[in-house]
Amino acid sequence: MRHEFDFAYESLIAGYFLASHRPSASGRYRYMPYRAGGHYKLHCALQAGEQPRCTFSAHPNVSFIVLACPEYGVLELSDFIIGDVA
Fold it and tell me: Which are the contacts of 66, defined by CB distance < 8 A and separation ≥ 6?
């Protein structure tokens, strides 16, 4: 089942945010991970010291960087970019 605030890493669905509005500024946000390849790859990238860039499924022109996962169900986000719509 798709959620309004689904997000993806490398075009693979990773989870969705539990906020009442789509995250749009740096900070920590609660999310629900999907048990799928996108979530696994996202955490592998974090463990490798990378800063993975994700996109919102419903708004693929909006991207953000995941800085950390300080605790289960929380992501620290930064560097929001709104790109051109193709």
Answer: 9, 42, 46, 51, 52, 53, 54, 75, 76, 77
Instruction: Report phi then psi at 82, rounded to 5.
Output: -110, 110
Pairwise CA distance, residues 72 & 59, whole Å: 25
What are the tens digits of pLDDT across the range 31-84? 999 998 999 999 999 999 999 999 999 888 999 999 999 999 999 999 999 987
H or E element at residue 2 = none
Is the separation of the CB atoms in 67 and 79 below 8 Å?
A: no
**Residue 69 class from Cβ within 10 Å (0-12 exposed, 13-18 middle, 19+ buried)?**
middle
